[in-house]
Amino acid sequence: MLRCGASLVPCQLISRATDGVKIKMSTIQAFDLRFCSKLDKPVMLRLSRRLRGTFAARRALGRSLVILALLMTQSVAVTQESTANQKPVNVMNIKLYAYNKLSWDQFQCYNWLIHYESRWNYKAKNGSHYGLGQMRSKWYGTLNPMRQIDVHLAYIKHRYSNDACKALAHWERKGWH
Description:
It is a single chain. The chain is an all-alpha fold. The chain folds into two domains: about 10-85, no CATH class; about 90-175, no CATH class. The protein has nine helices and two strands, in the order ααααααββααα. β1 (about 125) and β2 (about 130) form a beta hairpin. α5 packs across α6 (about 105-120) and α6 runs parallel beside α9 (about 165-175). The longest helix is centred in the middle third of the chain and has 30 residues, at about 55-85.
């Protein structure tokens, strides 16, 4: 806990800082065994008045910064590892999913409509419009591509009587659907 130019970060704070971050327990346990036994002593945690501004105080502050840097490095590495495990979505799989929901003629119109709107990029953003169908909802942009297709087809069903060709014709006339 850094206070009044204080010395070290107690290990209780370290365990709180790692809440919500998946870190291998062996790493934390090794960290706890090596450092926490030395750092959690009351003598190390309080800074007497005679130490303020001295080399010992700067050394203690340096130690706490090193500990925080180690924790930050570990949490960044874990975050990068978790995002690296996500597989990219193939556009052909998204199109196949849409094709299975529609007839061939309807799919042709839907294919052109989505191509014009987002180029089949489910992460597309244009102002306040998001996703495959460029719908005006942040929630829609957070959905996975298959769910975006389901929601967009429900919109087409409601607005254009379940006819993607009518939606395409409207887009060609007005520039939106």
